[in-house]
Automatic annotation (TrEMBL):
This is Spore germination protein. Its main location: membrane. Pfam families: GerA. Keywords: Membrane, Transmembrane, Transmembrane helix. Signal peptide: none annotated. Belongs to the GerABKA family. It is found in: Cell membrane; Membrane. The chain crosses the membrane at residues 248-269, 289-308, 328-345, 357-375, 381-403, 410-436. InterPro entries: Spore_Ger, UPF0353/GerABKA_families. It comes from the Bacteria. It is a multi-pass membrane protein.
Length: 480
């Protein structure tokens, strides 16, 4: 059998080594430490690992030193049970398992005359320290955020939920490159229908590789919508709270946030501050809901007033701002122009070094904004309205709702410009009906409002008494 065709380990040590070299394309970071082991005859052996992702000290102390002290052994099982000091070891025969193990930082032990190998976990991945979340910060409460290492993230969750009811299912996604994915849920709390559907959609993923969690998000969302039906979270405390609510969290190796399902519309208006401080339990969510409405309707309402309802504004101001306006472009072009400037500033602030962000912001706000107004390219009121619209959308950016705002603000802008107030009202009604039809893994998106579920209202528009919220069991309605 050709080396490239073999599916299991060979009894010949040389053939196995040559096969692995070919599979790794003679990569220089594949290290091979050859040695001999005493048996009834002296046998050749080899220890293989990938340099850079393996703890060399662990290889030396827990694998090489014990192997060199072996006097006699009957099988590979004896090597595992009597000699190796590594905590996590397994016997393998399939080359697919060998290649996957080496790629994950494990060390492979091969002995001539045996068509079996031993994989010992000696991985040492480089990682950044655990830091505060960037987009979901809290004035008071935990300052810990997820990082890119799956084991670190699971460790953080385990530290917060020290209970045997925390269940973790480990999967591997990817046909060519296997990426570790963990499904987390609380036994006795989790919604079983959501769990089964989550497990099904992830296991059915057919991709060559998985580098971004967006692939899993798309699979969990199913039918494409304007609105996000999965919640992305950088905070372990929020993830833990979601698990106790009966929801499911997904962690992906290399991704510094969790994916939480089901994700309902009201979840995007909940913030950690409400549970860590006394103030804001009644008004903060209404403020964020108002910000969301403001961010999608303000521009449409503004062009509606300019085009059809200038009589709503006192005559003195209407003459100054609307009737005697001598700007170069019509109002809708002004709005699109300012929105383009704001979007360019946002993109620039993400792509340039942090030290130059302030300079770019000053250039955009002072030079471009004031110059455009002075040159009468845009009206000063237009600049103020678009600025307010931009700020209101930023306040609800966490979790993934911001993407829907970008689309809906354009929809309502054109509805207001061409159809006026009636267009805005009809568009809003259609949007609510559309949202009522959306499902997040079978759970209605507007629950507990549509369908109405009074028992869940204690933590909906305002934060209820924490003891009652914590002690009550959450349930989710399911509709197909």
């Amino acid at each position: 059998m050709n080396n490239l065709e073999q599916s299991t380990l060979n009894v010949s040590l040389d053939k196995n080594i040559n096969y692995l070299k070919e599979q790794f394309n003679q990569s220089t970071d594949l290290k091979i430490r050859q040695l001999t082991i005493n048996d009834e005859v002296i046998r050749d052996a080899a220890v293989l690992y990938l340099d850079g992702i393996t703890n060399i000290e662990a290889v030396q102390d827990n694998i090489l030193a014990p192997l060199l002290r072996v006097i006699k052994f009957d099988s590979m099982d004896v090597i595992i049970t009597r000699h190796l000091l590594a905590a996590d070891v397994m016997k393998v025969t399939l080359n697919e398992e060998v290649l996957a193990g080496l790629s994950k930082g494990k060390t492979l032990i091969l002995i001539d005359g045996y068509n079996e190998g031993i994989l010992a976990d000696t991985a040492e991945w480089q990682m950044r320290s655990v830091t505060e979340p960037d987009t979901q910060r809290s004035v008071k409460g935990s300052l810990v955020g997820f990082n890119e290492q799956l084991k670190v993230n699971v460790n953080i969750i385990r530290n917060r939920i020290q209970s045997h009811k925390l269940s973790i299912e480990n999967l591997q996604v990817g046909n060519e490159t296997k990426t570790d994915v963990s499904i987390l849920y609380m036994d006795g709390f989790v919604d079983q229908k959501v769990l089964e559907e989550t497990r099904k959609r992830i296991t059915e993923l057919d991709v060559i590789y998985l580098l971004e969690a967006r692939v899993i998000e798309d699979a969990l969302e199913g039918k494409k919508t304007f609105f996000p039906t999965v919640f992305t979270c950088e905070r372990p405390d929020v993830t833990v709270s979601a698990l106790y609510e009966g929801r499911v969290a997904i962690l992906v190796n290399g991704i510094p946030y969790s994916i939480i399902v089901p994700s309902l519309f009201l979840h995007y208006f909940h913030q950690p501050d409400e549970y860590n401080t006394k103030s804001g339990r009644y008004g903060n969510r209404f403020m964020r809901l108002f910000s969301w409405l403001f961010s999608i309707i303000l521009l449409g309402a503004y062009v509606t007033i300019v085009r059809f309802h200038q009589d709503w504004v006192p005559d003195h101001f209407a003459k100054i701002f609307f009737k005697k306006s001598d700007t170069l472009f019509p109002v809708i072009v002004e709005i699109l122009f300012v929105m383009l400037i704001f979007q360019l500033l946002t993109e620039a602030s993400l792509r340039i070094p942090k030290s130059t962000v302030i300079i770019v912001s000053l250039i955009g706000a002072i030079v471009v904004g004031q110059t455009a107004v002075a040159a009468k390219l845009i009206h000063s009121i237009t600049l103020i309205v678009v600025g307010l619209n931009f700020l209101s959308s930023i306040s609800i950016a966490a979790g993934g709702l911001y993407g829907s705002v970008l689309t809906l603000r354009f929809v309502f802008l054109f509805l207001g410009y061409f159809f006026g107030l009636k267009g805005l009202l009809i568009g809003f009604i259609i949007m609510i009906a559309y949202m009522a039809s959306i499902r997040s893994l079978g759970v209605p998106y507007l629950a507990p409002f549509i369908p109405f579920h009074p028992k869940e209202m204690k933590d909906a528009l305002f934060r209820g008494d924490l003891r009652k919220v914590i002690n009550s069991k959450h349930t989710f309605p399911h509709k197909k």
